[in-house]
Amino acid sequence: MTGMREIVYSLLLAAFALDCSAQTLADVARRERERQQRLHSTVVVTNGTTITTTASTSSTVAAPVTPPAGEKPTGPVGNKGRDEKYWRTQFQKARADMKAAEDKAQLLDLKIKDLNTQLLRQSDVYNRENRLGPEITEAQKQLDAALKEVDQAKKKITDLEDELRRSGGPPGWSR
Q1: pLDDT in tens, 51-87
Q2: Which of 40, 44, 60, 63 is CA-nearest to residue 52?
Q3: Do 103 and 146 touch, CB atoms closer than 8 A?
Q4: Which residue has better confidence, 61 or 21?
Q5: Helices then strands, each counted (H, E), the chain
Q6: pTM exceeds cut of 0.90
Q7: Looking at the DSSP assignment, which residues form a beta bridge with residue 49?
């Protein structure tokens, strides 16, 4: 019985060893070089023809092609003539403003909590009330202003969503 197990285990081990043939270092390096060339290649489209240049064969980089100022967008547009790129940049900017306002409000909230902790920890009555009291008041005023900025930023996003909806653009442009 144990002889049969040893035979089965040795056959499984041999099959596994044959199945798991190791790559050579040269194969791995070759694949990595090919991946890097694909990653760092530049594709230039000129008059409908595609030209691919790799970083190792060309040292010049083509400037991005920009359409003339008078040319209209080629993709779908809303009722007001604004395309997807316009809406996405507006929403991205509005979200960045909202995130900055939220971060500022969170930072000020933490500052107020720290000042309150300092106020409770200090035993010096004069220093505690005369120095920390005005700092807490000023930080609270700044926090209130920051919270108003957050509300304005949220309102701006809501207004942009309504404007996009009224202009007939798809809701996906707001993402």
Answers
A1: 655 544 444 444 444 444 554 555 555 555 667 788 8
A2: 44
A3: no
A4: 21
A5: 5, 2
A6: no
A7: 46
The structural domains of the chain, with segments of one domain joined by +, span: 23-59, 84-174
CA pair distance 139, 108, nearest whole angstrom? 7
C-alpha distances out from residue 119 to 115, 122, 133, 134, 137, Å: 6, 6, 8, 11, 12
DSSP class per residue in 23-77: PPHHHHHHHHHHHHHHHT-EEEEETTEEEEE-TTT----PPPP---TTPPPSS-B
Distance (Å, rounded) from C-alpha 168 to C-alpha 49?
A: 34
pLDDT one-digit tens code per residue, 78-135: 555 667 788 888 888 988 999 999 999 999 999 888 888 888 887 776 666 677 888 8
Query: Does residue 38 contact residue 31 with C-beta atoms inside 8 Å?
Result: no
What is the Cα gyration radius of the chain?
32
